[in-house]
Specification:
The structure holds three protein chains of three kinds. Chain B is an all-alpha fold. Chain B is built from 14 helices and no strands. The chains are: A mainly alpha, B mainly alpha, C alpha/beta.
Chain lengths: 336, 329, 382
């Protein structure tokens, strides 16, 4: 538990905000469908409640057929996240398998697997997804998961392969080999632990891809249109002319939800990136020294300069920052 | 130039894979697609049914190899069959009408977004820790918005509410006749502004963030410190020493992202009812117009592969090490 | 491959060149570069790393000063910090670096210079030859363009004269002019290093800082490059601050040697004196750590243990945990450099108040604390 707390403390702000945002959405996904005020599919025949603006009774208004948008949103968040996470897990597992195997075995296997990976990387995925789903009679959650997983692994595989190649040549792996360790043990205990942050970043990326692909597919109509995912909400909003009818409460919430989830994931990923790449991380802390911003093309700062000559305004603003405390400690500002 | 040849060979393989997938998918899918089509479009000629059956591999049309051969032959001759929903128009003619619209819009907007994004990324990387970094979360949000959703929002704001831009379509169909005259071209440009702005807004964030990160890494390289030690002006250090080198991974990223950009742009076209391939795609899906769907898949895939090849050529131009590296193999 | 440009008898010529150079220049008042009490830290999220701690070092016109230490000792930080070329999170916390050259209007503190003054200082007065030429040369620019960059940044030359100057720089280091059109990756390691040297000389500097210029090269090429350096120095008369971990190299090349450890100077003296009567235990350890090709076989010592963590350096002498002469009083040493008694060099100084020339080297290997993996100068390892 203290490991986790330590990890949290070292994450940059960006990642923390992302994690919190994501946490909120996950919470909504878990308990949301239990607390919907209405059944999302219930079509209220009352004319007054068709395309009603947001009110106390309907927090996000209603659709063309009197359905409560807020309830749909809650269910939608769960369905979309569910799908995206499952796809993320499957695709990440496949990409780790392919990437590590390809790098570890080397030779012909590497060439073949790499070719395979690169071909599927370069072929645009959305048109292929459309083709696949277009022919499937059932376009539900399961079909979408299968199809998205099938096309979501190449990116991660390529990145993991590159990293594995670097690690494979390191001394400690050679040492394990010399000691006669079985290959799978080397992979499991030497290689993969060193790639955890990369795999995590790859997972987040895949979830991102799954969300945007599933929403786009649903928008075109290639999904189970009787279920309420964020994408199908947008489909119905579009096809029922919500925009032209001015029903912004119908198409804005699902779209903003998608954007917010996406932002949360990207923030999280940037944090993981900075965590794994020391240069980015040092760059982040490094550019503020003693409260002043130092650019890479600036000459090395001299402490006496930094504390001696701030402008009035800068000094005032600077006094609010944490680093101002550092400058006032005697020995030139040592971090506790 | 062995490098270019290897790349061409790679894209040829990818193209072949796409073609083969296109051939097998209809045959591999469960269910009887032909019945579905016959039910939807009862007015088709028998020859159209036959063609469909041939395409879907139904009804014993001959050995798989011979089917494959015929299929490849058709593709080479750009014969994608007759359309089902818009019978008797040929698929190729439908594509020919829509491709130019998409090409101009998406092509131009993507290049502009890439150029601007890269430039801003250079500045953000150089002056990082400064103003640019404050915009970072906002940019990430922008990047996470689906293209078509931003289109909806902008359409609502700028077209519906404020009437700055036209509401839909590629040109003002009521007043203007297509042709090479200023009325038409002006109207077309007018109608393409909002879609173009949408594409630029959403994708620019991605390019900028990517370039910024690459720049930060590159600015830490020894040759940049050496350039500073030489007393070169900041501008020269940042542009000729850092950015020139950072551009290489950035271009590679561009190639890889092309597929996504194009896909996103197509879906976005639907929102604007823009007469491009995207709208065609939507209609094809809605009416299960299989010949059209397959043709669109092929066309989009080939376009992306070609664009990737073009990017590879640009990279070779910029990086003298590539030719040497390949020659040394 | 290039052929050696001079015979082994060039080493004694070096000593004379310093004298020759000194007379060729107008005699400046005082040392060319005077580093006083310089302290540099790296401000990381886990604390301040004290990379350089109160270092005093001076460099005279035409002199070759060797800065010797193992990796992590702060020698590069010292040199780059003095020129203010270190990147964040580096911070100069104290000291001054006074430069008094023939082009300036008097002594000036580099640490207080404005950006435009620094700009003039760079390359015209102080130039740097970097360690790994492959990394220090821009991979996408031709050699000619990189040379021209340096030339145009400091000299007002019309285009054709600049081109001729670039070509003549290559002549100076023995590279064929056709190589102007090459990219860095098309050159061999030795050639790249020569290009770096040529580039450093573009603005005719007074001081050239050489940061381990031969470390990345194989031994034969090393000799070539060193001979090349000696030759150009003879011709142009600049001072050199030569940074390396290889003390044996400095014994042949340098006029004076400064030994650095854990961010602090341990001993400074002329090359002859250091060789003859090394005062500090660390210096002695370094000298006995590498084999010499001539002379009787003897047991190879090393220096066990590893350098201290600079985030939290222990009080007193940083070398104490690894020192064979250590005693409790070492923890209270203030690390000021004091003159060595009985040395032929009047400015021979050492930081160790307990060990001197009279303490015979035979007493050295007796009590060595075993505190970790063996280290020695990289030449002796692996």
């Amino acid at each position: 538990m203290s490991d986790l707390a330590n990890y949290w403390r070292r994450l940059p702000n960006k990642a923390r905000i992302g994690a919190i945002m994501l946490g909120l959405f996950i919470l909504a996904a878990i308990i949301g469908p239990q607390v919907t005020p209405y059944d999302p599919s219930y079509q209220n025949p009352s004319q007054a409640l068709s395309l009603a603006t947001p009110s106390g009774a309907h927090l996000l208004g209603t659709t063309q057929s009197g359905q409560d948008v807020f309830s749909q949103l809650l269910v939608g968040i769960r369905l979309t996240l569910e799908l995206a996470v499952i796809v993320g897990v499957i695709a990440t597992v496949v990409s780790v398998l392919v990437g590590v195997t390809s790098a570890f075995l080397g030779g012909v296997w590497d060439e073949v697997l790499s070719l395979f990976t690169n071909v599927f990387l370069v072929i645009p995925s959305l048109p292929l997804l459309i083709l696949l789903l277009g022919y499937l009679p059932q376009k539900g959650q399961l079909a979408t998961i299968v199809v998205l997983s099938g096309l979501g692994w190449p990116w991660g595989a390529r990145v993991i392969r590159a990293q594995t190649l670097m690690i494979r040549n390191r001394d400690f792996v050679a040492a394990s080999r010399e000691a006669g360790e079985k290959s799978w043990r080397i992979i499991l205990f030497d290689i993969i632990p060193n790639e955890v942050s990369l795999i995590a970043a790859s997972f987040v990326n895949t979830v991102l891809y799954a969300i945007s692909a599933s929403v786009a597919l649903a928008f075109i109509g290639l999904a189970d249109l009787n279920s309420w995912s964020l994408g199908t909400m947008l489909y119905w909003a579009q096809s029922q002319q919500a925009l032209q009818l001015g029903a912004w409460w119908w198409f804005l919430p699902p779209g903003i939800a998608v954007a917010l989830i996406g932002t949360a994931l990207v923030l999280l990923n940037t944090g993981i990136d900075e965590f794994g790449n020391p240069r980015l991380r040092d760059a982040r802390t490094a550019t503020k020294i003693a409260g002043r911003r130092i650019q890479p093309t600036d000459p090395t700062p001299v402490l006496a300069d930094l504390s001696a000559r701030p402008s009035r305004l800068a000094a005032f603003a600077h006094s609010f920052s944490r680093s101002s405390l550092l400058d006032e400690t005697p020995a030139g500002g040592e971090i506790r | 130039m062995p490098f270019i040849l290897r790349r061409i060979a790679f894209y040829a393989v990818a193209a072949w894979v796409a073609l083969t997938l296109n051939f097998f998918i209809p045959r591999a899918m469960p269910g009887n697609a032909v019945q579905g089509i016959m039910a939807k479009f009862p007015d088709l000629q028998p020859s159209a049914y036959k063609a469909l059956e041939a395409m879907l591999g139904v009804g014993h049309p001959g050995s798989l190899i011979s089917q494959y051969g015929n299929y490849l032959d058709d593709v080479v001759h750009l014969n994608f069959g007759t359309d089902v929903a818009n019978y008797p128009a040929s698929v190729s003619s439908l594509l020919a009408q829509t491709i130019p619209w998409t090409l101009v819009l998406v092509g131009t907007a993507t290049v502009i977004a890439f150029a601007l994004g890269t430039l801003l990324g250079i500045l953000a990387g150089w002056r990082h820790g400064g103003w640019a970094d404050r915009w970072l979360p906002g940019l990430m949000f922008l990047q996470a918005i689906p293209y078509f959703f931003l289109a909806l929002v902008l359409l609502e704001l700028l077209a519906v509410k404020l009437h700055i831009f036209p509401l839909a379509q590629g040109y003002n169909g009521q007043d203007v006749v297509p042709g090479w005259h200023w009325d038409f071209i002006g109207s077309a440009i007018d109608h393409s502004l909002l879609p173009a702005i949408t594409i630029v807004l959403t994708s620019i964030a991605g390019w900028m963030l990517q370039m910024r990160n690459v720049m930060i890494t590159t600015l830490g390289e020894d040759y940049v410190v050496a350039a500073q030690a030489k007393g070169l002006s900041n501008r020269r250090v940042v542009y000729t020493y850092a950015a020139r080198n950072a551009l290489l991974p950035q271009l590679q990223g561009f190639g890889l992202a092309l597929g996504f950009v194009v896909s996103g742009a197509l879906v976005m076209e639907i929102v604007f009812s823009y007469p491009g391939v995207g709208l065609l795609l939507l209609n094809a899906v809605t009416s299960t117009d299989y010949p059209l769907m397959q043709a669109i898949f092929l066309v989009i895939t080939f376009a992306v592969l070609l664009a990737n090849l073009a990017v590879d050529l640009v990279i070779v131009l910029f990086d003298p090490r590539v030719r040497a590296r390949e020659a040394a193999r | 491959m290039s052929t050696p440009m001079s015979t082994p008898s060039s080493e004694p010529v070096l000593r004379e060149s310093a004298a020759a150079a000194a007379t060729a220049w107008p005699a400046p008042v005082g040392p060319l570069l005077e580093i006083r009490d310089l302290s540099v830290v790296y401000r990381t999220s886990s604390g301040d790393v004290k990379a350089v701690e109160r270092v005093n070092l001076s460099l005279n016109a035409g002199e070759v000063v060797g800065l010797c230490g193992e990796s992590g000792s702060g020698k590069s930080t010292l040199a780059y910090g003095a020129c203010r070329l270190l990147r964040p999170p580096a911070l100069i916390t104290a000291g001054s670096v006074r430069y008094n050259g023939r082009r300036g209007t008097g002594p000036a503190d580099i640490l207080q210079m404005r950006p435009d003054q620094l700009h003039k200082l760079r390359w015209r007065d102080i130039a740097i030859v970097f360690q790994s030429a492959m990394n220090a040369l821009n991979p996408v620019l031709r050699v000619r363009d990189q040379l021209l960059d340096a030339i145009h940044a400091h000299l007002r030359l019309p285009r054709d004269e600049a081109a001729e100057k670039a070509a003549s720089l290559l002549d100076l280091v023995g590279i064929p002019r056709s190589r102007l059109r090459s990219y860095p990756h098309e050159l061999s390691g030795g050639m790249r290093q020569r290009v770096m040297i040529a580039m450093a000389l573009a603005a005719d500097p007074e001081i050239v800082i050489m940061d381990e210029p031969t470390t990345a090269l194989d031994v034969v090429v090393q000799r070539d490059i060193l001979a090349q350096i000696v030759e150009v120095k003879q011709a142009l008369g600049f001072a050199i601050l030569f940074i390396t971990h290889d003390l044996s190299l400095l014994l042949e090349l340098a006029d004076r040697i400064a030994v650095m450890y854990a961010g602090q100077l341990l001993e400074v003296g002329t090359a002859e004196e250091i060789k003859r009567e090394p005062s500090h235990p660390y210096t002695r350890g370094l000298l006995t750590s590498f084999p010499s090709l001539r002379g009787p076989r003897r047991e190879l010592a090393g220096i066990p243990g590893s350098p201290p963590d600079l985030r939290d350096p222990p009080p007193g002498c940083p070398f104490m945990p690894r020192c064979g002469y250590a005693r409790p009083a070492c923890a209270e040493v203030d690390m000021a450099l004091a003159p060595v008694t009985g040395s032929a060099d009047p400015w021979h100084v050492t930081a160790c108040p307990f060990v001197g020339p009279e303490t015979r080297p035979e007493a050295w290997p007796q009590t060595r604390p075993e505190t970790g993996p063996e280290t020695g100068p990289e030449g002796a390892r692996s």
